[in-house]
Amino acid sequence: MNLTFKTLDDVDVVGKRVLLRVDMNCSIDPQTKQITDATRIESTRETLEELSRSKVVLMAHQGRPDSDDFTSLEQHTEILRELGFNASFVDDIFGEKAKRAISQVSDGEILVLQNVRYFEGELKNAPAQEVAQEQIVQELYPLFDIFVNDAFGAAHRSQASLVGFTTVLPSVAGRLVEKEIRTLTSATATDQHPWTLVLGGSKVEDKVKILEKLLLTGRVDYALLGGLIGTLFLISDGKVPENYSKPIKGYESSVTIARDLLRKHSDVILLPEDAAVERNGERFDCDFDEMQNNPFLDIGPKTIKNYVKIIKNSAVVFANGPMGYFEKEPFAKGTSDVLEAIAECKGITVVGGGHMGAMAQKMNLEDRITHISTGGGATINFLTGKKLDLIVALEDAAKRM
Ligand code: 3PG
């Protein structure tokens, strides 16, 4: 497959000052603030190894300002060290402290900058030329020879650290971006059916919009919903009362879209038929009218049975986002049964997103799933056929190089 952007094969990185953007946005325990799964940090390995004779400065984000997982990158740096990399951390992004530390980086060293989303200008999504004017780009780019973007998980974002540098520095994709694009391109180059989407987890506002786009392609035969997005649709359909919307960020703006989608695609969208809630500290499977206002923590047994049957008989399955509160063992059942069915499916299977990918790995399913993608939102966006912002930016950079 011919790539439309440049990669590490096209540049000489030895002895160069390399600015590297990765996605090591990890699952964080909301109480302890500790990383619970380091898969995304491990996924930077191949690119970092190829840059082992460069002066590497690494940028990444963790969480969003309004989320529980919005933390410093200090512990990510510690994990990089445990993985064998010569990494150090500076609690600054582009100020004097960061610039001094950057000037001291030697070949073979990696300097991790602070969470780029601590800088407000990073939160803006706009065309590359526009975000290139942000201070983070203007202050940092003169200090580097090459920009390497390996942040596949954030490839659908058009933010300064992701696309701004591509307008001012020679820019190439890292090995993870390259591998994801190659694998997803071949996995989607099929017109086999039934084509099943399994969609769960949070980030409901993003997911409902992307589901809308994906359903418009006409590609999806079944959209099996769970997690908080499943709850949103259950409320929209009048199956559970509106007070279940409490944990759903962006509920107001999402519910109208969800209602519209249910009206237009009732034959494609499948909702949970029952739930699991917590009662006396244990899992309790029940129908919706028995939930007694307890939060929806997992899909129930009838739903699992139906979803498993559809998944096993599908020609293509893309899954993103857990079916329930999988961090608590009794409520991981929906997600693990769905993953087991995906592993048993004989068709093309892709599991994406930090949480589901990590669980598939924990269950040792890697060899039985076509591809475990590090992208959640990025992978689903890829499926809509629209080019990812990160790729567009790298293509433009390639034309200028
Ligand atoms: C992800 O986890 O999907 C990526 O890191 C992007 O994060 P975001 O949805 O907060 O932009």
What does this structure look like?
The chain folds into 2 domains: 188 residues, Rossmann fold, CATH 3.40.50.1260; 154 residues, 3-Layer(aba) Sandwich (Rossmann fold). The longest helix is centred in the middle third of the chain and has 14 residues. It has a 6-stranded parallel beta sheet. 36% of the residues lie in helices and 16% in strands. α9 runs parallel beside α11 and α12 runs parallel beside α13. With 401 residues, the protein is α/β, with parallel strands linked by helices. The chain is globular and about 65 Å long. A hairpin with a 2-residue loop joins β12 and β13. 3-phosphoglyceric acid (3PG) binds next to loops.
Strand content: 15-25%
Helix content: 25-40%
Report the CATH architecture of the largest domain.
Answer: 3-Layer(aba) Sandwich
Decide which structural class fits the backbone: alpha/beta
Arrangement of strands in the largest sheet: 5-6-4-1-7-8
Residue windows where pLDDT falls under 50 for at least 5 positions: none
Helix segment tally: 16
Tally of DSSP β-strands: 17
CATH homologous superfamily descriptor of the largest domain: Phosphoglycerate kinase, N-terminal domain
Taking all residues together, what is the mean pLDDT?
Answer: 96
Bound molecules: 3-phosphoglyceric acid
The CATH class assignment of the largest domain is: Alpha Beta
Largest sheet: 6 strands, parallel
What value does the Rg take, in angstroms?
21 Å
Distance between the termini: 21 Å
> What's the oligomerization state?
single chain
Number of domains: 2
**CATH third-tier fold name of the largest domain:** Rossmann fold
Q: What is the 3D form?
A: globular
